[in-house]
Structure formats: C-alpha cells, structure tokens
Predict the structure.
Amino acid sequence: MTQLVQCCIFRGINALLTYELPEELSSNCTIGTHVYIPLGYAKAEGVIVDFLPKNANPVISKTKSILDLNFKKNSLSTEQIECIKWFSHFYQTTPFKAYQCIVGNRKKRDPISLSNTDITPSEHQLTPEQARTFLTISTSIGYSEHLIHGITGSGKTEIYMRLAHECIKNKSQIIICCPEISLTPQFRDQFRRRFSDHIIVLHSGLTPKQRDIGWESIKAGVVSVIIGPRSVMFSPVKKLGMIIIDEEHDNSYKQDTHPRYYTHDIAKWRCKYHKCSLVLGSATPSISTYLTTKKNVNTKDVASSYSYLANRASGSSLPSIEVVDMRTKKQSKHSLSERLIDLVSQKVDAKEKVILLLNRRGYAPYIQCSSCNTIHSCPECTLSFTYHQDKTFRCHRCDKQFPFTHTCSHCKRPHLAFGGYGIQKIELDVRNQFPKAAIVRLDKDTAKTATQMEAILTEFKSTGDILIGTQLIAKGHHIEDVTLVGVLGIDTQLNIPDFSSAENSFQLLMQVAGRAGRGKKPGHVVIQSSNPDHYAISCAKSHDYEAFVDY
C-alpha cells in the first residue's frame, strides 16, 4: 500500500497537504525532509511533517506524488516540526509562515571549530542572596519556571553565568535572550571572558553567512551558550538545558509584525518539550509575570520559584531620585531645568559622566498647522509625523519619509509649526549649554546596526562626558563612571493612551535610574515632570516595586 505523507507547502496555504511518497524515495525520506511537490500545474517546495498510517484514506480520490527530495536544505529535527505545528495553531497563521519564522532561509554551512575551550573560574564570591537563588534553580528537575527579581546591579548576570557553567558540565546547551541587539556585545564580552569559544551570538546584524554558520554550529552541538535577541529562541539546540530571558519585562520580546509572537510563549514551549528550566530575570518584572509566578509558587500548579535580590552585589546603594516639578520651578530657556543644568555642570567639571534620557526620536514629535490646528500626519497610517534635522518628515510606525514643507495638507496654507521636542533638539540645546563637553547621542537614527551601537557606547565609556539617548540607553549597560541621570519628557510616555503606559513608564524610570552609581561614587537621578504626583513617578522615587503593583 502506498505511503501517504503530510507536507507543509511553501505557499500561503492554511493547511497541510497530503501526497503519496514513491517507493524509490522512501529509503532517504524522514519527517523533516525537504521535498519538491506538484501544486496545481506548478512545482513547489515543501517539507514532510508527518507520515500517515498505511490504511489512511486521502481526502481526494487521486493523490499526487512527491516529485523529488530537496537535498539543498538540511532536514528539520522532530522538535522543529512539532514547533511549526504548535506555532501555526497557537498564533493562527499558515504552516509556511511558521516555518519562515522558526527556520527561515538557511543554507548548508560548515560549523565552526573551537580553538579555545578553557573555562575561567569566577572571581566573584556569591552573596547569600545570589547563592540561594543559584542553588534553587540549579537543583530543579524537569520543567520549572523561575523569576529572579533583582534590583539593578544585584548580580543577576553572575547567576546566569553560573547556570551556564552547570549546563556545560551536564553536556547541554543554554539559550540566553536579551531584549536589544545593543546589549549583545556586553553579554558576549562577559561570557567570552568566562567561557572562551563555548559561546555564540546570533542577531539580525550579522550577515546571512554568519547566521548560517552559527545555526549549523548550534545544531552540531559545537557551542553551548547561545546569546541574542528574541530570534535566538528558534536556534536548533540539540540538548536544551535551560533558557534565560533577561530584562523579561521588555516590550521588545513581542514581535510587532506578523506573526506577532511572544518570546515567553516560545520559551515555555521549548522548555516543556525538553523538560528543563525557564529563568526570567528583571529589576522590574512585568506585573503579569510577577503575579503569575507568585500564584504558581503558592498553589504549586507549576514547579516555580521566586527570588528577590534586594542588594547590589558591589555593596553600593541605589541612587537617590529627585523629581523637578516643571510647573512651579524656575525654568531656563532650554529644555533642561535650572536644577538639572547645575547638576550636569558639576558632574562635567568633576570628570564624571552623565546620561540624559528622552524617549522621543527626531527634532519635533509633531507638526501642527497654526491656521486650522490640524496635526500633520502620515497618509499611510495616520500617525503624526516627526520632524528630523535632515529636513524630512518621518513616520516612526511605517518608516515613510516625506520632504520638508511649510504647506498644510488640509488648508493648504504655509503655516506649519513644530511642536514639542525630540532628542535632536535636546542634543542641540545641550551642545549650546555645554560647548566644551564631549557629547554622544544614541538612538535608532545614529545607530542602525549593532556595530554602530557598540562603537557609540565605547566612545562614551572612554572619552564621553554626556550620553543623550532614547530607551536604548536604559537597558543593562554597566558604566561605573555615570553618577547622574536626567529623565526628560516622561509625561509624554505616561499620557500614551495605553493601559500599560504607567507600567512601561515605571519600568523605564527604574531601569535608567539603575545606570547611576554603579561604581564607588553615589548616583543621583533627576526626573523632570509636570505631573510629579503620578503614582508611577512616586513609586520610582522611592524604588518601591511592591507599592506600584498594589496600585
């Protein structure tokens, strides 16, 4: 009796199609084998995802046969096939779209060969809090979920490295996920100093050839520690020992284009498949993660643990936070308050570093007609335009660019005016106010690749005085000389019509505040706000996560 197989067709078809497998091809064919199949009058590619029982009846009376096997592509593992099935069902997308997301367009490459496999022992002694957390996670058996809630600088990365060492000793692999490409160099350097060539970094900033070599090296089991942003979650690990998601609260873990998957969902599925631990770490866990973990710990529905690291590993204290009320305080003609200008001057004179955060790209965040009051918006998606210094109007949602004009698209009068201020305007003000300071700007306009981000951060660490940036600078960067952080325009973030705007603002404030005082000198944070009594700001001022959750 003819063997029937189900295939994922590389077309936008929302179903698996059934084909006959010719006897002459069956000896070299398994689940996961790529094939050529007939589709209508055309020839298409696909992959076998299942063998049907011999007595199964095809849906139609005459089933077409597979034409040939495709040896240009490597066969998929059983886990990849199962993940494609689950992904397409869970996110209601086609099997081929799931295939593209999970596997992508890969070419056969030779894996790398390790030149240095030495593992350097840690120079750090774990604090009692770190030791308890490490012991709890490393001794867990089977699928389990663990939340490490540690303040900034509490030593979460050291715990990650100890857990990675345990995985290497057990001949298994570990995936470490970070929210932004800009954080991968820092993780790479820290882990490479400890684990030499056992690590590999994957992200979209690499060339297709580099990604293919990394993919094959992981699949061959050559490397044990895989680091990268959310796409690293699909890497073809053979024996998964653990997944760690750092800064788990970050919105970057949600894919914002179709299919809109959530990294945590993928991580849970893979950890359940491999019966291993999932570790989430953050100084400000998402409220849903925090409450779910607490519930699981109390009800024991899922093997879970919650660890709170309340102290910095270095012994330094958290920075003091000051809120400047922009409604009552005497202000200068600049976008910085008089208080912040004075503090920046003191720090620059003392050769200490300063970070200024404004989470708004461009020069002016909106353009309004002074005649008819119409907001100049993108014709494609209706989001208000942002004016950039290169004399363009840009839409930050669909990336459309239009040349600068003074003419209103609604009333046709030449009365367009700029409103608000973006990071480019802040940079101009700060350069005028501090002409002798070495000023560096980091946002998605100045750093479009991971290499550019790394170069800008390296410049600031070595010769910079003031770093001006968007939320890219708030996440995980360890720069000991930073003693002052200024937060501008937080009211804009608080007023976004989104139920999570307060939570996102609180997390941003706590994360960027954690960049100050990481060295021997105490840190100070200044938040400029026209709504200083907002509960997100009040809780951030007192570093009180529990109080924020209670709201």
In short: The longest strand covers residues 42-51. The chain has 16 helices and 23 strands.
